[in-house]
Specification:
By secondary structure, the protein is mostly helical. Helices cover 59% and strands 1% of the residues. The chain has 13 helices and 2 strands, in the order H-H-H-H-E-E-H-H-H-H-H-H-H-H-H. It has a two-stranded antiparallel ribbon with strand order 1-2.
């Protein structure tokens, strides 16, 4: 039966012996990074070769990603809904939806023509078709809402490039992003900044280091600004969930001392083998 204390469960079955805390810390770090030691080198290098600091920095990186998720969540939903609502409002026809069983006639634009040519570029249409096939394969009813929800952040950012400026960005700015300042009412500004938010989301999703970036707070503010301009009441209950300022301002030295105390208490002391020639309190 597993113990409720995860620290107990991670202890090795074979008894270990350490002459000092430094040996315990080094062993702990090597065990911690064994899955991909080369990837952890970035954290170790940023920590000046201090193993406990590297572990704390890795954990801090994870916390930063977690703390940014509410901001990235609202950014993706803002863009997705702004574009979709703008398309529906401007181009909604009277004919029936083409998705079998569609609840609302607002999905036509995925397959429609615009000024005599297919509205979506081939590679973007393929993404829509893939979503439809995945829903059908899963035995789910294919509706507009489900297709829109399944399309990636990257899909919606792609619709902000120059190929889609006239049919997408112009109506979106007029109908769903009315509150943006004049200097931000351009396809270029939207493409650049939502592209940055998408890229950050992708880095976090792939568990890559973000702790050395200096634009995280700027991007966080951008995400909330974009949403606040169109759905203020959506912002109100969600903004308190964003812990980025708290996490970004953490005292990493204090966190390192706390981890050192835990390793000393839970890992070193139970496996301590005193050596008369060494100080058992030697730090790492």
């Amino acid at each position: 039966m597993l113990s409720e204390n995860p620290t107990v469960n991670m202890m090795p079955q074979k008894a270990l012996e350490f002459h000092n805390l430094g040996q315990a810390v080094l062993y702990f770090y090597k065990s911690f990074s064994v899955s991909a030691p080369e990837r952890f080198e970035r954290y170790l290098s940023a920590s000046g070769g201090r193993h406990l600091d590297a572990i704390v920095r890795y954990r801090w990186n994870l916390e930063l990603g977690e703390a940014l998720l509410p901001s990235l969540h609202v950014a993706e939903l803002t863009l997705r809904n702004a574009i979709h609502q703008a398309m529906v409002k401007r181009y909604l026809p009277s004919e029936r939806p083409h998705f079998p069983g569609g609840e609302h006639p607002d999905d036509w634009w995925f397959d429609s023509d615009f000024e005599g040519k297919p509205f979506l570029k081939y590679e973007d249409k393929v993404k829509v078709d893939d979503v439809v096939r995945q829903l059908e394969k899963a035995g789910k009813r294919v509706t507009t809402a489900k297709v829109v929800a399944e399309l990636s952040f990257g899909f919606w950012v792609e619709l902000l490039n120059s190929d889609y400026t006239e049919p997408i960005v112009v109506p979106a700015l007029k109908t769903t992003l009315r509150g943006l300042p004049d200097e931000k009412k351009t396809q270029g500004w939207l493409r650049d900044n939502f592209g940055k938010l998408r890229d950050l989301r992708n880095r976090i999703s792939h568990h890559e280091p973000i702790f050395e970036r200096h634009d995280l707070d700027q991007l966080r503010r951008l995400a909330w600004l974009s949403l606040a301009e169109i759905q203020r009441y959506f912002v109100y209950p969600l903004y308190p969930m964003c812990r980025f300022v708290e996490v970004a301002g953490k005292d990493l030295k204090e966190e390192t001392n706390n981890l050192k105390a835990r390793i000393d208490r839970e890992f070193f002391q139970p496996n301590r083998k005193p050596d008369p020639n060494e100080d058992v309190n030697t730090p790492s």
